[in-house]
Amino acid sequence: MSSYTIRTFGDPVLKQRAAPITDIDGSLVRLADDMVQTMYDAPGLGLAAPQVGIQKRLFVYDLNDGKGPKTLVNPTISEHRGEWEYEEGCLSVPGLHFLIVRPKEVHLTGYDLDGNEVSIEADELEARLFQHELDHLDGTLLLEHLDDAQRKSALRALRGRVLNQAT
């Protein structure tokens, strides 16, 4: 069973900018472990703290590359290059996927759970995942990357689901 419930579209916590983390301690490690379990149960490739209602600048991810789950604390992207269109989904907007153009390559820095600085050159899927999770930390949802027609269609679909769940 997941430790957390994933917040979905309409929850105000998803629109707020998360606060920087000042201390990496045992409670933060437990939070990351619980978030990893929640991400696996969903299932997803990444999960940002605001998606479970916690306003901290942290996300977990696992690209299923055999390296296991990772946590990034206070991540920032300092450089980006190129463009890459790819179908993207979101655990907070369940069941919907959209072709979205994002930078193909990024340089991300942050900290691991031991307080060590991390510097990652990422491309394609890993770069997209980092950008997606950073959006969550900044209070930006996937829907904000859509053009007007796509966004209207997505909102109609989301409203339809809410109405179906209510009946």
TrEMBL record:
Keyword Zinc: no
EC code: 3.5.1.88
Protein name: Peptide deformylase
Entry keyword Oxidoreductase: no
Functional summary from the UniProt entry: Removes the formyl group from the N-terminal Met of newly synthesized proteins. Requires at least a dipeptide for an efficient rate of reaction. N-terminal L-methionine is a prerequisite for activity but the enzyme has broad specificity at other positions.
Catalytic activity, reaction form: N-terminal N-formyl-L-methionyl-[peptide] + H2O = N-terminal L-methionyl-[peptide] + formate
Cofactor(s) annotated in UniProt: Fe(2+)
NCBIfam families named in the record: pept_deformyl (TIGR00079), PRK00150.1-3 (NF001159)
GO biological process: translation
Cofactor binding, note field: Binds 1 Fe(2+) ion.
UniProt keyword terms in alphabetical order: Hydrolase, Iron, Metal-binding, Protein biosynthesis
GO molecular-function term, one example from the UniProt record: peptide deformylase activity
A Pfam family the protein falls into: Pep_deformylase
Family: Belongs to the polypeptide deformylase family.
Residues where Fe cation binds: 90, 132, 136
List of catalytic residues: 133
Superkingdom, taxonomy of origin: Bacteria
